[in-house]
Amino acid sequence: MSLVLHQFRYDQKQFWREPTSVFFTVALPLIFFTLFAAIFGSEETVVNGHKIETSTYYVPAILALAMINATFVNLTVWLTIERERGQLKRVRATPVPAWVVIAGRTLTSAAVAAIMVVVVCGFGAVLYGVELPTSTLPGVVVSVVVGTFSLAALGFAAAGLVPSENAAPPVANVLVLPLEFISGIFVPSDQIPDWMDSIASVFPVKPLFDSLLDAFDPVATGIGVAWGDLAVVAAWGVAGGILALRLFRWSPRR
Amino acid sequence: MSGEAVITVRGLRKAYGDVVAVRELDLDVHAGEVIAFLGPNGAGKTTTVEILEGFRDRDAGEVSVLGEDPARAGGAWRGRIGVVLQESEPPGLLTVREALELFAGYFPHPRRVDDTIAQVGLEPQASQRAAKLSGGQKRRLDVAMALIGDPDLLFLDEPTTGFDPAARREAWEIIASLSALGKTVFLTTHYMEEAQRLADRVAIVNEGRIVAEGAPETLVGGRAAQATIAFSPPAAELPAGLSATARPASRGTVELRTERVVEDLAILTGWAREAGHDLPGLTVTRPSLEDVYLELTR
Predict the structure, then answer these.
(1) Average pLDDT score over residue span B28-49
(2) Span B118-126, mean pLDDT?
(3) Which residue spans within B146-224 are E strands per DSSP?
(4) Which position has the higher pLDDT, B261 or B297?
(5) For residue A13, which residues of chain B lie inside 8 Å, CB to CB?
(6) Model confidence at A41, in pLDDT bands (50, 70, 90)?
(7) More exposed terminus of chain B, fewer Cβ within 10 Å: N or C?
(8) Is residue A252 part of a domain?
(9) What's the farthest any 2 CA atoms get from each other in chain B?
(10) Residue pLDDT, tens place only, B88-98
(11) Mind telling me how many Å the CA of A82 is from chain B's nearest CA?
């Protein structure tokens, strides 16, 4: 366990020193937040059959975006680069067990996702006066935990599919961007046609977003855990884990 | 080199589809020895090393490295070997010291980070990020990362390929210092000079087989009986009594391949001195390791 912490420490250093990943994970979601709030902020949007402030809508949306970038995109790109540069293979030549390396990477992206939860909520509360969940806080926590680990598992699987260092960022984005669009992360979901909405529901992005949205819904009751949506996310996570076991490689492909 | 056996290989075989990379390879490496695996690209060097490192499965043969079968060995065994891969980059976002601290944490009894940095001469770069190092410095960090676990056995797969001459010399000094630490070093290379400089023993590999093996001097020595006497001939006819016929060689010179070097040279120079010939460009050459290598891997 102390070895996992050791790995985690140095993985954290590496994450925060990489300007591109910090930009895409931390800065870009906040820029999008500002833009969307400026464009749609004066309006209201319909959620669960009633109207809520659009700025409130964007807190869970941007949260989902930041989580996807911190876990799925970040791991797909980072693991592919490390594999192609022979770094993963080199680590395999040492006595460190594989699970320690996998845990270090996963916890690093989970920690970044957790930081982004605080940052995005703070951003929304301070700049747009968004009311943060209190009674439904467990809903937020469960969504973040299930979402983070499921997306991380999918990241390990996707890294196994990506053939080369150069292909990693485009592949990760091609997988993620269309789903973000049809899931209502960028455009409010009441403006997305039903058929598109049904397609989106099959993939993990929309259920994850919906589960967060439920918890942020001001009229939500109970503890705000959307078990149905989270079951879909978790199923994708399990599928990702199984795929990763088959696809993930330590040695360069070239 | 009478130390205990560190690596024992018998009848090693590995094929990729129809292409046989290693065929019936036998090898013994003893403790404290530096052995060079010398051969052209595609000779099976990397395949062999990767089997010894436990990265690849073999098709047939017996392999023992530090008393264990690398295909089945676990973490404790990996703690006793150090690996420098043919192509790998150190983690670019960590400093030299951090990269070594990270790797030190993987091993049960690591060397001290500062000593290891000094060992590879990277003290001035200790706080620099690995991405900012030159190619030669990155390789030295690579060697340091292989050394940090204080291994008994080090594998260096083509450690200086693509280096400029200055960086190569630096790397050689470091590698030479490893054997001074008492480490057993298994080196692959396609540079003759590298093998000659660093290795106690050279195994020349071609088409998946060891075609010659021994200390660099003995490898050459076996063929050293023959030498070549070359010179630009005067207009006059050469003296009688030479053991071989002079054959025309490059740029108007002639060559005499002989096993009676001293006698032939005496006849030739005696005759030239009497007749007042100059014999410009006179050279006597013994075969080098390079000649032996080229002959064996042709």
Answers:
(1) 91
(2) 93
(3) 153-157, 184-189, 201-206, 209-214
(4) B261
(5) 93-94, 98
(6) confident
(7) C
(8) no
(9) 77
(10) 889 999 999 99
(11) 8
Looking at the fold, whether B71 and B195 belong to one and the same domain comes out as: yes
Taking residues A77-91, what's their average pLDDT? Answer: 94
Judge whether residue B242 has pLDDT over 50.
Answer: yes
Closest CA to A64 of A138, A128, A121: A121
Mean pLDDT of B103-107: 96
- Within a domain: B201: yes
- Which is it for strands B81-84 and B153-157: parallel, antiparallel or unpaired? parallel
Is residue B174 included in any domain, yes or no?
A: no
Quick one: B101 and B120 in the same domain?
A: yes
Tell me the average pLDDT across A140-149: 94
- Contacts with A, B 62-101, CB within 8 Å: 75-76, 78-79, 81, 83, 85, 87-91, 93-94, 98, 101
Structure tokens at B119: 């060992």
Token pair, residue A29, equals 């979601």
pLDDT digits (tens, 9 = 90+) for B149-196: 999 999 999 888 878 888 888 888 888 888 888 899 999 998 888 888
DSSP secondary structure letter of residue A130: P
Q: Do A91 and B94 touch (CB under 8 A)?
A: no
Q: Would you call B88 and A86 a contact, using CB atoms and an 8 Å cutoff?
A: yes
Count of structural domains within chain B: 3
Average pLDDT over residues A51-59: 89
A3/B98 Cβ within 8 A: no
Is residue A182 within 8 A of residue A200, CB to CB? The reply is yes
Per-residue model confidence (pLDDT) at position B1: 45
Residues of B in contact with A17 (CB under 8 A): 93, 129
Q: Within a domain: residue B16?
A: yes
Using CA of residue B25, residue B19, residue A250, residue B178, what is the dihedral sign? positive
Q: Which of A7, A17, A87 sits opposite B88 (nearest CB)?
A: A87
Percent of chain B residues topping a pLDDT of 70: 97
For residue B36, give its domain range. Answer: 1-80+152-167+180-221
In a domain, A28, yes or no: yes
**pLDDT per position as a tens digit, A23-39:** 999 999 999 999 988 88
**Domain of residue A144, residue span:** 2-247
Find tokens 């400093």 and name the residue: B95
Sheet holding B283-285, edge to edge: B247-248, B254-258, B227-231, B283-285
- Mean pLDDT (chain B) is 89
A254 found inside a domain: no
- One domain for residues B198 and B210: yes
State the Cα–Cα distance between residues B60 and B71, nearest whole angstrom. Answer: 12
In whole angstroms, give the CA distance from residue A128 to residue A177: 26
How many structural domains is chain A composed of? 1
Gap between the Cα atoms of B271 and B229, Å rounded: 15
Which residue in chain B has the smallest CA separation from A254?
A: B87
Considering only the beta carbons, identify the residue of A14, A86, A94 that sits closest to B103.
A94
Cα gap B116→A105, rounded to integer Å: 27
Q: Which two tokens stand for residue B6?
A: 């560190």
Do residues B45 and B206 lie in contact, with contact meaning Cβ atoms separated by under 8 Å? no
Residue B173 lies in a domain: no
